[in-house]
Design goal:
It is built from 16 helices and two strands. With 340 residues, the protein is mainly α. The longest helix is centred in the middle third of the chain and has 24 residues, at 190-213.
């Protein structure tokens, strides 16, 4: 599937890569992801897939073929060789990785991912058939995009996207897309979101156990039992602190097909309800606020006004986007979304 995305997005055409070479590259990348519960190749592909979905849903894409290639390659490689431990853990334990990438301050993991990604692409001849200037430009953009996936930079990424002066910049938009894709688990159906959330906690537990063995201060936000109230609270805080602000900003930006962003926001509402219910079975569920009320049914989507002047073309695009969303696992049952 990663190969198919690179082909259908025009990335292989831009890079002049034959399919066997593309398959070899993707296989090599997959082999370099470690067998950890969350930051594995499944997560990498999920982020790449969501990135591609957002690229496909642009009403008018601001990206050049080079930028599309950089964004998708960065998505595929953004957590390469992640060992299931945080940057702060590496710094606290003074690991070899922390020492090697000490110049990058707190973003030691992201610096490693970017370096390994570019080295792997070079070794797999990804840039062999483009001019030197394009190769340098795509490497530079990949590095910037991967470094921007550091969760500590969440405020800067969304503030830049919200700033009208910088939001039109393609690099700013690319950083926002990759960041949103990286934290997109709550935008999937509740069942899928829960699966990913449990994977996150299992990886957290591995770090907590190691911290205890090394007699280090335990990362408190990581400490919870599976299926517990504490786990539900952990995931709810993540949704409210990170997913909601970022995805709401995408939804109101008017850059994307409304069908996709509304489906993602609907799933976030359902995800919040799921974690609220898990925290307290008798809790009074509340619905988050969005721009207006919309019943999420097929007929409602069919009645949505077209994005462009050509109604027939817009209708065709909406039908195509529905197929993409269904294949991505975003589609859910009908639900009322009440918003201000």
């Amino acid at each position: 599937m990663a190969v198919r995305i690179l082909v259908e997005s025009g990335t292989t055409a831009f890079l002049r890569m034959e399919e066997p070479a593309t398959e070899a590259f993707c296989s090599q990348v997959a082999s370099m992801y470690q067998a950890v519960p969350y930051h594995n190749f499944k997560h990498a592909f999920s982020v790449m897939h969501t990135t591609y979905l957002l690229l496909q849903s642009y009403i008018q894409s601001p990206f050049t073929p080079l930028e599309v290639a950089a964004l998708l390659l960065a998505a595929l490689c953004h957590d390469i060789q992640h060992n299931g431990r945080t940057s702060s853990f590496h710094q606290t334990t003074k690991s070899a990785l922390a020492r090697e990438y000490a110049s990058h301050k707190g973003s030691v993991l992201e610096a490693m991912h970017a370096s390994v990604a570019i080295d792997t692409m070079t070794a797999e001849h990804v840039f062999d058939h483009v001019v030197a200037a394009d190769a340098d430009a795509i490497k530079s953009m990949i590095q910037e995009l991967i470094l921007a996936t550091d969760m500590a930079l969440h405020p800067q990424v969304i503030e830049a996207y919200a700033d009208k002066k910088s939001s039109g910049d393609s690099l700013t938009q690319a950083k926002m897309i990759l960041h949103c894709a990286d934290i997109s688990n709550p935008t999937k159906s509740p069942e899928v979101a829960k699966w990913w959330s449990h994977a996150v906690l299992r990886e957290f537990c591995m770090q907590v156990n190691e911290e205890q063995k090394l007699q280090l201060p335990v990362s408190g936000f990581m400490k919870a039992d599976l299926f517990s109230r504490e786990e539900a609270n952990m995931h709810l805080e993540f949704v409210d602190s990170f997913a909601v602000p970022a995805w709401r900003l995408l939804a109101v930006s008017s850059h994307f097909d409304e069908y996709v962003t509304r489906q993602c926001m609907t799933n976030i509402v359902l995800c919040r309800k799921m974690w609220l219910a898990a925290m307290e079975p008798t809790v009074q569920l509340t619905v988050m606020s969005f721009p207006r009320t919309l019943k999420r049914t097929k007929s409602a989507y069919e009645d949505m006004s077209p994005c462009g002047d050509d109604e027939k073309a817009s209708s065709t695009k909406r039908r195509c986007m529905k197929k993409v969303v269904r294949r991505s696992g975003l589609e859910t049952a009908a639900v009322d979304v009440n918003v201000t």
